[in-house]
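User: Sequence in, structure out. Go.
Assistant: Echoing your sequence, followed by the structure tokens.
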Amino acid sequence: MAAALLLLSVVPMSVHGMQVDSLPPASPDIADTVWMDVKETFTDALLFFSAPGRFSLREWGIAGWTMAGTGMTAVVDDELRRLAAGRGGKVADGIADVGNYYGTWVPAAAISSGLYATGLALDEPGIRRAGRHVLQSALYAAAITGAIKVLVGRHRPQLEDGPYVLEGPSLKDEYNSFPSGHTTLAFAVSSALAAEIDDPWATAGLYGLAAVTALSRMHADRHWGSDVVFGAVIGIVSGYGVEHLHDPAPEETGLIIMPTIDGIALVWRF
């Protein structure tokens, strides 16, 4: 199970330059343009989810640190719950309502469809692509989180049996704590938008809003701290990965195993 989580944590970061990213103008027939984008979304999904087969040393390192960070958070899950759950009164409840709402599909669908429709109407491929990227990031991240939730079967905090009880494969909501789906979706949308806008102030605001969602899930006692940490990681790497899905492959450095006539050779590339 840990190996599966390790692979899923950095899926988007391993897709390197398998095809050139394109921004084709809208077709005179809007239906053709929409169909082209639908096909592109499915093609990108194949690249996205096949990425573990192309992990580099750097990406394995990032995956390791991701798992270590989640594990360290899990150690203090009980303490974090005591600090976050139900604290702050009506003001905190109001802020939590905003965060919980941002982690639903309503804002994600509204933002992606709004951008996409605007791009179509104004014949602006960049705006149209931004809407598609937001939707792709949300869909891919939700698929990863949903699969992990069902496979792990972690008990939610309000069951009062501690943070280390795993049911195993289960579809029951009370056993679907890890990772946080609201947090995943919020960070997927925010990271995709931040990558498209590419402005430090917008990035800070969008990630701040997603962080409110993460804290809101803990405030509502629906998730442990490690649930929201790993959900945030999935959302961020999904948004980042979708934006950079077609970037050219960078120069690889590090230890490489290469076949030779006489067997194999270890090569350090720098």
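User: And one key feature?
Assistant: The mean pLDDT is 84.
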